[in-house]
Amino acid sequence: MASITLDKLTKSFGKQTAVKEFSLEIREKEFVAILGPSGCGKTTTMNMISGLLEPDSGKVYFNDKVMNEVLPGKRGVGFVFQNYAVFTHMSAYDNIASGLKVHRVQKAVIDKEIEKVAKLLKIEHVLKTNAGKLSINDMQKVALARTMVTKPEILLLDEPLSNLDAALRNIMRAELKRIHLELGQTTVYVTHDQVEAMSLADRIAVMNFAVLQQFATPDEIYRNPTNLFVADFIGSPTMNFFRGTYKNGELLLKDFKGYGIKVSSKYKSQIDKQLKNEDIVVGIRPEHLKVIDSDDVDKSGLKAKTVGYEPLGSETVVYLEPEGAREKIINSLMDSDFKTDLHVLKGLKFEEEDLYLFDEKTEKLVLKF
Ligand SMILES: Nc1ncnc2c1ncn2[C@@H]1O[C@H](COP(=O)(O)OP(=O)(O)O)[C@@H](O)[C@H]1O
Ligand SMILES: [Mg+2]
Question: What is the rounded CA–CA span in Å between residue 18 and residue 25?
């Protein structure tokens, strides 16, 4: 299997910079997700890895070998797109075989390989079926099988599940994970869906506006998002953000009528050292912001009005409007048995350990408490 190194890949289309100085080191057998909103440059990056697109500058290496001049067909990559182009007039079997026939593989070998891959993907029973008559799920599996049967060292998957409905997506996600564990191909997986990236990948490369924001394990990205974009993009419901200023060891929240959070001394020196600007954004994830009775909050405590709640079965999302703030809704994740009236004032509770501090100007994380 191959490792992949991207060194300052840059690609523009006219005035539009699609990918800017993108550098990444993907280990052999690693499963890496490239995650970001639509239009941020994910597909362009993939196409430069596969060789379908030539970068304006920068280099692509497989195992320390420069690939820039190597044709796509000679790179040893297999790829599957969102729009799995299966040949609908052929059987599933012939579709899968087509990947091997171009390599002039013998019929007996093809049969054996297809048997193996069909078993792996659990599509043995549809091999004789006309591909046009398959369920979307099986069609996507056939597209995957056709690529996998060629045994590429590198597997590139560009939003391969986004045409499937939610239930099938979950099943396929589990299958992909299982197959990856079994075959260990170096895999790059493009998605705009954070759940897919979090559940599948060993490491996630988060992109926005053509630029890599952070490359780390799902856990690290969730716990230590490098900037406001990553903090906002990862996690559902999303992290709450409060604008404010930092003065003399106190976080003064504009969104809560200037409510001040005194930081403990161990953090104060860190903040004083690292925070360059006075304007800040304080972040807290919904699961760490708890709704309590307003009587249990002292006079100066955080208060917010309930404006809605969604019981989700295993938990309840509560939407609140900070007291004195307009057009700002925050969310709190409570237990499934949480009940409340709407339009009543509640208290909010959190631990210092669960706060994030961002510099408002640079948008960078200053401190995870
Ligand atoms: N062939 C192209 N011609 C012109 N602009 C393109 C082309 N391909 C991509 N772009 C632009 O480059 C940016 C990144 O596109 P893309 O890599 O497809 O994003 P993503 O896959 O993350 O949705 C977008 O603004 C898109 O409009
Ligand atoms: Mg795309």
Answer: 20
| Closest ligand 1 atom to 190 CA | 21
CATH number of the CATH domain containing 126: 3.40.50.300
44 lines ligand 1 (CB under 6 A): yes
Tell me how many domains the chain contains.
2
Q: Please tell me the distance from the alpha carbon of residue 23 to that of residue 264, in angstroms, as a whole number.
A: 38
Provide the domain limits for residue 300. 237-368
What are 252-278's pLDDT values in tens digits? 998 888 888 999 999 999 999 999 889
CA 193 to chain centre: 6
Beta pairing partners, 160: none
Q: Residues 125, 169: one domain?
A: yes
Beta carbons of 188 and 46 less than 8 angstroms apart: yes
Domain boundary residue, one of 232, 262, 294:
232
362 C-alpha to ligand 2 centroid (Å): 28
Distance 157 CA to ligand 2 centre (A): 11
**pTM, full prediction:** 0.92
Expressed in angstroms and rounded, the spacing between residue 38 Cα and the centre of ligand 2 is 7
Give residue-wise pLDDT tens across range 178-219. Answer: 889 988 999 999 999 999 999 999 999 999 999 999 999 999
Q: Are residues 61 and 197 part of one domain? A: yes
Same domain, 246 and 203: no
Ligand index nearest the alpha carbon of residue 44: 1
Full strand arrangement of the beta sheet holding 65-66: 16-26, 4-13, 57-62, 65-66
Question: Which domain CATH number covers 256?
Answer: 2.40.50.140
Is the minimum distance from the CB of 41 to ligand 1 under 6 angstroms? Answer: yes
Q: Give, in degrees to the nearest 5, the angle at Cα 266 between 264 and 271.
A: 85
Last residue of a domain, one of 208, 232, 256: 232
Claim to verify: residue 10 and residue 84 sit in the same structural domain: yes
> What is the Å distance from ligand 1's center to 39 Cα?
6
Pocket test for ligand 1, best of 44, 46, 211, 212 (most atoms within 8 A of CB): 44
| 251 and 306, same domain (yes or no) | yes
43 lines ligand 1 (CB under 6 A): yes
Atom index in ligand 1 nearest the CA of residue 210 equals 14
